[in-house]
Amino acid sequence: xxxxxxxxxxxxxxxxxxxxxxxxxxxxxxxxxxxxxxxxxxxxxxxxxxxxxxxxxxxxxxxxxxxxxxxxxxxxxxxxxxxxxxxxxxxxxxxxxxxxxxxxxxxxxxxxxxxxxxxxxxxxxxxxxxxxxxxxxxxxxxxxxxxxxxxxxxxxxxxxxxxxxxxxxxxxxxxxxxxxxxxxxxxxxxxxxxxxxxxxxxxxxxxxxxxxxxxxxxxxxxxxxxxxxxxxxxxxxxxxxxxxxxxxxxxxxxxxxxxxxxxxxxxxxxxxxxxxxxxxxxxxxxxxxxxxxxxxxxxxxxxxxxxxxxxxxxxxxxxxxxxxxxxxxxxxxxxxxxxxxxxxxxxxxxxxxxxxxxxxxxxxxxxxxxxxxxxxxxxxxxxxxxxxxxxxxxxxxxxxxxxxxxxxxxxxxxxxxxxxxxxxxxxxxxxxxxxxxxxxxxxxxxxxxxxxxxxxxxxxxxxxxxxxxxxxxxxxxxxxxxxxxxxxxxxxxxxxxxxxxxxxxxxxxxxxxxxxxxxxxxxxxxxxxxxxxxxxxxxxxxxxxxxxxxxxxxxxxxxxxxxxxxxxxxxxxxxxxxxxxxxxxxxxxxxxxxxxxxxxxxxxxxxxxxxxxxxxxxxxxxxxxxxxxxxxxxxxxxxxxxxxxxxxxxxxxxxxxxxxxxxxxxxxxxxxxxxxxxxxxxxxxxxxxxxxxx
Length: 694
What we know:
Elements: H1 12-24, H2 30-37, H3 40-47, H4 49-61, H5 68-77, H6 96-102, H7 108-124, H8 127-143, H9 147-160, H10 166-180, H11 185-200, H12 204-218, H13 224-238, H14 243-257, H15 263-280, H16 300-308, H17 314-317, H18 319-337, H19 351-366, H20 371-378, H21 381-388, H22 391-404, H23 410-417, H24 429-444, H25 449-457, H26 459-463, H27 468-482, H28 488-496, H29 498-505, H30 507-513, H31 515-520, H32 527-544, H33 546-552, H34 554-561, H35 566-580, H36 595-604, H37 617-632, H38 640-653, H39 659-673, H40 679-693
């Protein structure tokens, strides 16, 4: 490919850069080739559509023996963004030649990206080009001897089928069926991972007569890595099946797979139980999530482990497993991810019975011999129980949860801790006290900090149904013990729970049991805990009022303001500032923020001149008589860090003070600090004075 270009003089410098990029495509230095390949769009734009088709693309076809990183960059550059640069959809077929070569290489990431780019190019092609170019491409890939080509073919079927002419669609179905029975396990894995996506573009009758039998066939494959991917497809197929046959088509294979000899397949069954229940209930399941909201474990984990046991090459054996997460995402989008654009899903007529069957099979997985299976099931206990809506299932699940609370594997207990408290929503108050709280208390006392942390983060779910007496007698002693937990993340998570406890326990109980703890956190060894503790005082004050703060908090803040450690004095200043700052008028979008976060936002928003809630008489009195004197007394502190924090604190307290204080003591204090020997102190006091004038 020649780097010569012709242009007006004003374009010379740009074209010289492009010429250099073209030359670097052939350079011996792999980094230069990689950098140049990442700028294919720039090169194509300079060459123009015709030269791109006739020179650049043929050159790229001959360059597929390059380094994997270079090939991956090439595959990315030949996607949808390149279509216009080769002349638009009418010439999109020109991109298929280099991408076809890339789709056959051994490196998985290159193949996957090449298939994605081919799908993007095919989606823009005119209908007549599908039969002329895309279908022959699919046939070539599916019929080649080397298995990587057939893996690529499995990934293209779903994008070509809906745009193919009616006469060709039967051939595509036959082709995909052959991939599902391929002699090479890696190809069958690829077919299994793309089955749900293919089913999503099939007519309804073919979902029942083609896709479902293929899923059943793959679910009995001799390779466990194929079976686990087939297990993942049933949830996606369920939403595509008629309501009347949904249970009978999906429950038998799910229950069979839940007893599979391979733990990886049982793991997949545990991960899919919730989605199956949702489909039976007429809900379009998204990507399953655990109770903490994180994505469910990808099939890549077990699949990869299974594939790793294969005697074939490492890159080939991991091909379907590593791409299964992407395939699952595609299937989810097709089957349920775009739920807002799809018609409502009719519930199965036997949804109650079906969900009970799923729930009982799921309960057995909670007691599985393999820790990974137990963890996958434990992360979904509350969600599956809420779908089952059956006392027998709930009893069985709770029985298993009691066993899991003392499981020998930490990650199993952590998974349970992140989900089990959600069962408070499906239990009566009596069952919550008798069955759920003992599990929560055991997990709160767990030796692993991650387990304790997971429970604390979900305590609100129990708090919503537990009365103040129950909290005081059961949870509160454990919470008090955790206040001095060795792990700072546990202390910090517990701190955020204080405003909620304040509302539940009432002023008397909170003051006697927890106020001292809230103050002690201001002296914590970890800065983030001290900072959150300062915000927490305002959040609790919003519950009990400023009079309570004056009685219970200010005397302790005064003691901290005289602490020998300047870090503690800084924390006392910040706590006083946040305690007395005006609260911003709460926008609707902030309704979900935690009380502590809102308190910190109240302090930081003052300088932004947001709309504030005016100070009440009690609020202004607290600022005038207690907080301002406390803060201003530290204007002569020996440590500059304390003094400039005083300047910032005064600026935050000033709007809540009475006009007399603002024009008198506050202004005088800031004026003196303007002459401080420290530059930061002078700066922040100057900023505070300017805001005071405004």
